[in-house]
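Key idea: predict the complex, not the pieces.
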Amino acid sequence: MNLRYNGSKCSGLYNCTIQRVSYYILFNQSKINQNMKILIACEESQTVCKEFRKLGHEAYSCDLQDQSGGFPEWHIKDDAIKVLNSQKWDLVIAHPPCTRMANSGVMWLEKRNLWDDLDKAISFFNEFVKYGKLGNKIAIENPIPHKYAVEKIGKYNQVIQPYMFGHLERKATCLWLFGLESLKETKNVFKEMSSLPKSEQQRIHYCPPGPNRAKIRSKTFEGIAEAMANQWGIEYCSCSFVMIMRDNKQRAVCSECKKLVQE
Ligand SMILES: C[S@@+](CC[C@H](N)C(=O)[O-])C[C@H]1O[C@@H](n2cnc3c(N)ncnc32)[C@H](O)[C@@H]1O
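Result:
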């Protein structure tokens, strides 16, 4: 057991023995990861769903399409808004369709008169915004929207890039966050990525036409999914003084609140 005292004051465990500390950890193991019920709306790849499952949460992907992630038992094939409002979720991550709202496609609105489609996409997106404004925890993810969309859905809170999470690629992704902290980068590989040819850095943008193009382009990056699970799926210790202990996975745990400590 790796025991490290990390503060000038710690109420309660001054005279503990290593054996007592082990007992505390074992006894409170379940408190480290409180089981959450999580909906990943508009996700067929199950990339985010699987990361939350790894932490022991009851996570479900939901999409009108069949899942392609290999876990049909974790997939709800239905309308995401119906499922969103069907029960209480502890956390929701939503990836609503972005084709009509993305800034990269703004020129088609006028050229192809797609304003009705845009209105439908905005109404759908705003169901998730409404859910967040009611005090629920939700992250909504979409590419950079054009100004006509921003007027109706509101400004995003954060822009992230795959290279901030270990992927040698760029693709600006916006997050609208309700009750959640901004996502912290986990492994910034910007420098390495910058030395690659443009076609590799922007693999998604240069993705050749084909039947699976839309699916490939919209799949969430694994590094981002992992960060979402590790940062939004774990309640970390916020005690001012902590005595750090190691659990059986060598993670730092606060001896007082029994929650994980961010190192
Ligand atoms: C931009 S893609 C997001 C894909 C996601 N990032 C993934 O990794 O699977 C949008 C997804 O929303 C789904 N979708 C569209 N309308 C929906 C609805 N009413 N209910 C549930 N899913 C819907 C589409 O089938 C598509 O898979």
